[in-house]
Amino acid sequence: MNCFRYKIEHDYGFAPNPFHGTLSLAACKGQLRNNRHLQIGDWILGLGSKSMGNLNHLVFAMKLEEKITFDDYWTDYRFQCKKPNIHGSLLQMYGDNVYHTDPETGKVIQENCAHSQSDGSTNKDHYDRDVSGKYVLLSKTFFYFGDKAPLIPECFNEIYNVGRSIKFKDLSDKSAYTNDFISWIQSNYEIGIHGDPCNWKEFSFPKMNIYED
Hints:
The protein starts with a strand and ends in a 20-residue tail after the last strand. The chain has one domain (3-202). It is globular and about 50 Å long. Strand 9 (142-144), helix 5 and strand 10 form a beta-alpha-beta unit. It is 17% helix and 18% strand. By secondary structure, it is an alpha+beta fold. The chain has helices at residues 30-33, 70-75, 90-93, 124-131, 175-188; strands at 3-7, 23-25, 43-47, 58-63, 66-69, 99-101, 108-110, 135-139, 142-144, 192-193. The strands form three sheets. The chain has a five-stranded mixed sheet with strand order 1-3-4-9-10, with no helix packed on it. The protein has a three-stranded antiparallel sheet with strand order 2-8-5. Strands 6-7 form a two-stranded antiparallel sheet.
C-alpha cells in the first residue's frame, strides 16, 4: 500500500469534491491521477498549506477504490449529481464532472465549471493540467475535514510534506508507520464529511447542511 500526499493550496470543494457520498478527484494533480504507481487500495492524503493557514493539518484522506476515465465518469448514472450548475448553490457550482469527449471531433470538452473562464469558455491552463491526469479517482472510504482539518500529531511528522510535489516513495518501505497513521484517523473520526471546504468562508452565502450524503 502506498500513501500519496500533497499540499492543497486552495479548497473550494472542487478538487477534491467530497459530496453525494463519494469523494472524487477529477481535476488538478494530473501527475497523481495518472501515476503508474497508484493502485486500488492506496491512500491519498490532502494536506494543509501555509497559504491556507493550516500547514500540517489533514484536509482529507481517501482510500482509492475506483479509477475511471473522464467519459465513464460523465456517463455513469451515479455521478450525474456531480455535474456543475455554475448558477446554483455552492455545492452545485463546484461539481467536478466536467470533462468528456466530443464523439465527432474526439476532443475532450470542458463544460462550464469552476475551472472555466468567467464567460464560460475553456480555461486552457486548467484544461491542460486537468486532462493530463486521464483518470478520475473515487472513494466511499474517505474522511473530508475541510475547514475543520485536524493537526497531524507530531508522532506522525513523516506524513508532513515540506515541498510542493507529490510524495509517496519516502514511505514505501514503512507500511507499519503508514498503517498506524490510517488507524489513527479511523479510530478518531467517522467516514464522511466533517467540515465545509476551506475557501467557502470567502462567500457570504448562509452555511449549508452538507453532511448528510
